[in-house]
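General statements about sequence and structure are easier to judge against a single worked case. Part of our work consisted of pairing the sequence of a single chain with a tokenised description of its backbone. The amino acid sequence and the backbone structure tokens for this protein are reproduced below.

***
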Amino acid sequence: MDFNDIQKQWNNEKIDNVVLPTNLKKIEAANTPLDKIRKNLKKEFFYQILSIVFTGFVPLIYDFPKELIPLFYLFFSLFLAICVYYLVKLYLFYVRISAITMKTKDNLYETYFDIRLNMELYKTFGFALIPFIILSLIGFLYYKFSKAPGFLTSEITNFQMIGIFSIVVFSFLSMGIALEVWVNRFYGKYAKQIRQVLDELKEE
């Protein structure tokens, strides 16, 4: 094989991952929103761990009745297991995006879809905590109203049923709205900026 054949073969090879200089600046522009996501995730871990630790000391802070403390820590252990599972997933995501170097369009696509996937994971994490919020509200209200005369009866009254239903609906609606606002504010808007860079690259 002579030099001309080698050169012809080289020219015919696909070079999808080679980035043109004009595109490189646009791809590197995605680093700014990615840095914002990293910083927000780092803060998120700190506040999440702090809130979990605080929750564990709630019976001591608010002087729970002794008979309710074992029940509280039973639910808290389940709550902790769910938190650890999702926080490990989010930490692995943080490690991945911290190691990423924006050099090719393929890397940018992978990063964008990883961010979108973990935004949904974050929402799932929030919804997984709803049963604990509902049980906490019901337990708190039950403890407060149980001292009222006639509250504890053999049958559940219509008022109590309406109260339980209201707590469930309120918990789902408030958590759903809070999650959408939180995720879009701290992660979604930066994901959109990365998507804009991808759209600009697609048009070229």
Remarks:
- The helical segments are 3-12, 21-29, 31-56, 58-61, 69-98, 105-128, 130-145, 158-203.
- The longest helix spans residues 158-203.
